[in-house]
């Protein structure tokens, strides 16, 4: 449905971001907006004024209509301003970029005003009980990033609920060529906002230090990315500061093994899928959202430090196994976790009511689609 107008209302864009680093969900929002514009849709974004420079840099060449609010910093403050800016406007569809309590009153009022015939919420996180209570009966479809989140919206919203998520710029993540491939030093990496202790950087450091000397001395541990650069006594442990999203694909092509050691809170792990697309074998903790990504192989699941050390030792010393697991990891990621914006527009945002009837208030269903 090329040319249909879209309102993109994201809590991230209605939050203060002048000096803050942008992370996974913000990157997803930016890439999705860019691709919607590139598909020929007139896209309108309402954003806190602090985003202006980032939009100018990151959306150059595919710039939507942007309506700026003053820098009120929070969605619950910027939301009413957005309503005023949008007064009298109508769109073919509205995308709500995440489940956010502060923005929900604005979303509900805009729906009552008839802002758009089609409405879709992309839920990146588990909704709190208060949010679920307030979203009860709201006429909006939900696209959740995992099945657990999707299940919490069943029989709550008045709309279709499905699981659909993946890497928007998946074509940028591909295996290393011969020229990029690692030398005899095996490089382990942890990727994420590593000042969060639950990301497992501390565990990776501790276990790496206890590896057998013959393994440790021929390996490196790369921790990407802390808010600021970190320094370690060892000359083979590196803690980088925050890096721009476009630097991640070539960085991963220089790695050999990815560690995803999250203890909680992960709802998808874009970093893990980026590693899988790059054909890295993955060592993970036993969080269900991580485990399901390796159900066809592609890595090792560990439950404690001892198992992590054994897995790191095995993969450091067996190049054939690394390659085999990496090939399977990439195969799984390509089959399941590549976001296709064109399909999202056709199958979700502007799905045909005749071909895929939506549920009524009394007959809701959850459709699980991994893309």
Alpha-carbon distance between the two ends: 20 Å
Characterize the biggest β-sheet: 8 strands, parallel
Number of separate strands: 14
Q: Looking at the structure, what is the overall shape?
A: elongated
Q: Write the CATH architecture name of the largest domain.
A: 3-Layer(aba) Sandwich
Mean pLDDT over the full residue set: 90
Which CATH C-level class of the largest domain is it? Alpha Beta
Q: H/E series, N to C?
A: EHEHEHEHEHEHEEHHEEHEHEHEHHHE
Beta-strand fraction estimate: 15-25%
Radius of gyration: 22 Å
What does this structure look like?
The protein is of the alpha/beta class. The chain folds into two domains: 190 residues, Rossmann fold (3-Layer(aba) Sandwich); 167 residues, Glycogen Phosphorylase B (Rossmann fold, 3-Layer(aba) Sandwich). An eight-stranded parallel sheet has the order 3-2-1-4-5-6-7-14, with helices on both faces. α7 packs across α12. The radius of gyration is 22 Å and the shape is elongated. The chain starts with 5 loop residues before the first strand and ends with a strand. The C terminus is likely disordered.
Key attributes of the depicted protein:
alpha/beta, eight-stranded parallel beta sheet, single chain, elongated, disordered C terminus, 371 residues, 2 domains, six-stranded parallel beta sheet, Rossmann fold
Write the layout of secondary structure elements.
Layout: E1 6-9, H1 24-38, E2 43-48, H2 52-58, E3 65-69, H3 75-85, E4 91-96, H4 104-112, E5 116-123, H5 129-134, E6 141-144, H6 147-153, E7 161-163, E8 186-191, H7 201-209, H8 213-216, E9 219-224, E10 237-239, H9 248-252, E11 257-260, H10 270-277, E12 282-284, H11 288-291, E13 299-301, H12 305-317, H13 319-336, H14 341-349, E14 366-368
Parallel strand pairs: 1-2, 1-4, 2-3, 4-5, 5-6, 6-7, 7-14, 8-9, 8-11, 9-10, 11-12, 12-13
